[in-house]
């Protein structure tokens, strides 16, 4: 087998506004984990990001999850890493990366949840405001 | 923004969420199992007929025909597109949001 050619990424100065839209509950499918990985990759490339939780996606950030009960990797704590990345970017002037972590109010209320039920600090926005925000992003990745 | 919906409105809330969160003026393309939402005279038809002034609706013709729906009445005001017109829609809009 020949070695694959080494790929070089020239991403210097490439910056886009991404939206990551989470609409699926965390354990019934692999979607939540896949989006989470994309979010972390976007942090490595210092991209701007809106991380939105809509519909059953709000269950991804519910406090008290423990996937080890199912013999799975417990990935909920990784959302804490997202919050840390955001805080680092907010505080460090050298990091040009704006992140917002948002929950749609209607989805949260419909599921009997409040802001205090989430593992990380979020902005709760009504659908009309979230609509404007998502519409203003350059790349929308959803699951 | 071009929004795509690929789930049946009878099974999932993808269309409802799209209609709630898409900005008026956007285009919405129904494809794969999303095409069932384009049928007239169903329990779900009102979802779209009520929003015809807010959005431009499209449905992917090959996905309609595949499912044996080609001769059934579609909601008036939905435009049927083929694959190359789907590509045009994607190219015309600033971004695409998929409702899965």
Overall description:
- The complex is a heterodimer of chains A (143) and B (100).
- With 143 residues, chain A is α/β, with parallel strands linked by helices.
- Chain A has helices at residues 31-44, 78-91, 105-110, 127-135, and strands spanning 17-22, 48-53, 99-104, 123-125, 139-142.
- Helices cover 30% and strands 17% of the residues of chain A.
- Chain A has a five-stranded parallel beta sheet with strand order 4-3-2-1-5.
- Chain A is globular.
- Chain A starts with 16 loop residues before the first strand and ends with a strand.
- The mean pLDDT of chain A is 92.
- Chain B is of the alpha/beta class and 100 residues long.
- Chain B contains four helices and five strands; from the N terminus they run βαβαβαβαβ.
- Chain B has helices at residues 14-21, 45-49, 61-66, 83-92; strands spanning 2-5, 27-30, 56-60, 78-81, 96-99.
- Chain B has a five-stranded parallel beta sheet.
- Classes of the chains: A alpha/beta (143), B alpha/beta (100).
- The interface between A and B is medium-sized, with 21 and 16 residues.
* Coarse morphology of chain B: globular
* Rg of chain B, Å, rounded: 12 Å
* Proportion of beta-strand residues of chain A: 15-25%
Q: Give the largest chain-chain interface (CB within 8 Å).
A: A-B, 21 and 16 residues
Mean pLDDT of chain A: 92
* Mean residue pLDDT of chain B: 97
Globally, the shape of chain A reads globular
Low-confidence stretches of chain B: none
Q: What is the share of helical residues of chain B?
A: 25-40%
